[in-house]
Amino acid sequence: MVFSPRFAYRTVMFRLRPHDLRFPPVEQATPEGLLAVGGDLRPERLLEAYRHGIFPWYNEDDPILWWSPDPRAVLFPDKLHVPRSLKKRLRSNAFTVTLDTCFRQVMEQCAGPRPQYPEGGTWITDDMLAAYTRLHELGHAHSVESWQDGRLVGGVYGVALGGAFFAESMFTRVDDASKVALVKLVTQLQAWNFRLIDCQQSSPHVMRFGAEEIPRLDFVNQLIDALNIPDRRGRWMFDEASDSERAEESG
Which tens digits make up the pLDDT trace of 166-209? Predict the structure, then answer.
């Protein structure tokens, strides 16, 4: 994320009702991308949000804020670019990479102290942690873990619906650990015929891997197509085929 939820959200007129899962059209979002305020994080609402290209992001002392930025940063799996230095890292097998072995722990690590939160804050609140852990238990949220000497040193988590993966956050404790996890994830999603990976906002990090900004309308239309693919629900595991070999061929 490159914007901050700390601004005059009270100017947003659309407030979600407790028993109504509907969101306003994404075109009604503010220039910053803020669409609605309030509601809750129960699975039904979260999944409804993601199906329409909307996601929650807020600070702990704010109400829940729902976003749909324009433009949208998207990584198409077949356009993955792997930098040369990272290809060498992949070939070295410095990390063991797994899927869905410790989802909550990955989220907790993503919520820990990081350079972009020097004051110690995080947008992954206790409520967010509980809500996405529940999505994981229901088979909709997934994690990728990088291990070194039996220690969790990097990871990525997000939500999957149809042929779309909504990347939420990543962390690293060792150089390249999260990058390796991301590449392994993207190459596996490509093998599973996923159409897009939502990166939400652009950053030098995701753009380095081939992400691009597209208009929100294009993103929504491509998301609609991706949702026509059946859900890959439940615990994920890597295919037996060598995803590292596919990664080395990318970029």
Answer: 999 999 999 999 999 999 999 999 999 999 999 998 888 899 99
Ranges assigned E (strand) in the chain: 15-16, 34-38, 55-56, 65-67, 72-75, 96-99, 141-148, 151-161, 164-172, 196-200, 212-214
Q: Which two tokens stand for residue 47?
A: 């999944």
Residue 58 CB neighbour total at 10 angstroms: 20
Q: Distance from first CA to last CA of the chain, Å, rounded?
A: 25
Q: Is pTM, for the whole model, over 0.85?
A: yes
Domains in the chain: ranges and CATH? 9-69 (3.30.70.3550), 73-249 (3.40.630.70)
Beta bridge partner(s), residue 36: 66
CA Rg, the chain, in Å? 17
